[in-house]
Structures are given as structure tokens and as C-alpha cells.
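lol forgot to send this yesterday, sorry. C-alpha cells for the thing we talked abt
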């Protein structure tokens, strides 16, 4: 059990809802993953299949986290967030501001500007950011209680590209909820992130584009649970030299003698 924005959840896995082969595949992936929170783009809800898609999610009784996907400016993101609050009836918003078309890296200036305004407007902002410490500090100062740094560029499946920086981020703000978002490509990537003490994993591409999306969703669920349990249990620190698992001190031994 963990607390996110004042609400308790069992699963540390958050799921995206785009690029699935069918609504049925999405539904099965959510069920087998155990995820209790899914992200939804306002643009997806407004699309032709929006009614069926939205009905499916409402019937499942899961928490909706709207996002401002594909917004290119602070003003666009703010406007989209307000529209999403009306449509989805929630003050939660996953704030995304695209700054680079090749990597889809967030625009930190637009992100911080939009965060200031949205926090002032009563939103619980989940900012999609990088591992940059200065940007994180500005977002926290603007009122964010949650950060969502990427592991690597969205959809790349590279895993944790800058482990040292992410570890520093985690250590600097232990009181802040930090969810790894983007770049996680395999269950082992997710386990690694959770072993470092992060609070959750946001996934989409690695599950949606898998040959068997529901099965992959379940695999990630197990991986995230294992990583979290390992972190909470206390991971063994690596050593430079070997250490026998059976101490030699006080252990009986036998000497073989040759008989003539």
C-alpha cells in the first residue's frame, strides 16, 4: 500500500492507454497488471472511438489521470488541463510540454510556467520531466508533491540511461513521490528502478506494443513488486572482494592421510 496525492493504492504500476491493438487488449492488460491508475489524453477521449473507450474505463472503476500529451507551450498545456478537469472530473493532471521533436524531451521553461499556474488553479500536478535537479527543484518550489522523471526518451525502451543522476534525484528529495515515466522497455528495467527506491513506474509502449500485451502487463506487475520488496527488505551492498557464505572460523575440517 502506498499513498499518492492523498489516496491509497496497492499497485505501484501506472498504465498508459494508447497504441493497444484493441479495447479488449487494453482491458485485459489493465486487469492482469493490477494497475489502479491509467493515463488518458483529452485528445483520445475526443476521438471517434472516445465513447466506447471512456465507457470501458469507467466500467472498470479505475482512477483516471488525464494528461496534456503533445502540448507545445505552457498556454496550450494549461488550456488542455482545464478542459480535462471538466471532462474527467478530477483535479489530477499529468503535465507534459514537448520541447524537442526528436527526443520528445520536456520543455523545462514551459513546464515550470504551466506548473505555477495550474497549482494556483487547484490542480494536483504530475509533471513529466527529466532527471535534471534544477528543474526538479523549481517544480517542487512551484508546489509539486510528485515528480515523473524519464528513464530515457519516451518509447525508446532504453531503460535507466542516467542511473547516477536518478539516484541523486531520489536521495535529494526522499519526501517527494517520484514515479519513473518513459523509457522503461523490459520488466528488468522496472525492477532496477524500484530497487533504487522510486515509488512507481509509468508504462505504455512496452506493454501496448508487446506481442501479448496482457501477459507483458502481468510480467511488469511481478517485476515492480519484486523490486519494491527488495528495496524495502534492504538490498545487499556490492563488494569488491569475495566473502564466503559459510565462515571458515570454527568450522571442522578433515585431513586426508596417506597410508603406506
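and heres what i got for the seq, position by position
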Amino acid at each position: 500500500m502506498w499513498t499518492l496525492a492523498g489516496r491509497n493504492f496497492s499497485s505501484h504500476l501506472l498504465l498508459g492507454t494508447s497504441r493497444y491493438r484493441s479495447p479488449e487488449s487494453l482491458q485485459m492488460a489493465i486487469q492482469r497488471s493490477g494497475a489502479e491508475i491509467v493515463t488518458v489524453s483529452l485528445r483520445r477521449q475526443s476521438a471517434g472511438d472516445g465513447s466506447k473507450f471512456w465507457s470501458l474505463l469507467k466500467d472498470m472503476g479505475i482512477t483516471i489521470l488525464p494528461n496534456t500529451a503533445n502540448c507545445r507551450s505552457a498556454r496550450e498545456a494549461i488550456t488542455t488541463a482545464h478542459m480535462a478537469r471538466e471532462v474527467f472530473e478530477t483535479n489530477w493532471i499529468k503535465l507534459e510540454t514537448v520541447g524537442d521533436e526528436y527526443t520528445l524531451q520536456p520543455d523545462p521553461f514551459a513546464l515550470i510556467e504551466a506548473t505555477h499556474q495550474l497549482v494556483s488553479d487547484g490542480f494536483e500536478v504530475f509533471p513529466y520531466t527529466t532527471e535534471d535537479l534544477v528543474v526538479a527543484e523549481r517544480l517542487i518550489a512551484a508546489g509539486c508533491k510528485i515528480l515523473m522523471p524519464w528513464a530515457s526518451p519516451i518509447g525508446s525502451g532504453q531503460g535507466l540511461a542516467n542511473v547516477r543522476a536518478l539516484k541523486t534525484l531520489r536521495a535529494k528529495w526522499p519526501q517527494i513521490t517520484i514515479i519513473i515515466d518513459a523509457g522503461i522497455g523490459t520488466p528488468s528495467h522496472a525492477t532496477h528502478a524500484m530497487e533504487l527506491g522510486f515509488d512507481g513506474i509509468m508504462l505504455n509502449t512496452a506493454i501496448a506494443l508487446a506481442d501479448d500485451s496482457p501477459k507483458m502487463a502481468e510480467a511488469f506487475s511481478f517485476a515492480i513488486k519484486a523490486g519494491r520488496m527488495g528495496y524495502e527488505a534492504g538490498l545487499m551492498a556490492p563488494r569488491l572482494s569475495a566473502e564466503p557464505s559459510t565462515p571458515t572460523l570454527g568450522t571442522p575440517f578433515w585431513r586426508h592421510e596417506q597410508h603406506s
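Residues 179 and 200 are 5 Å apart (CA to CA). anyway ping me if u want another try
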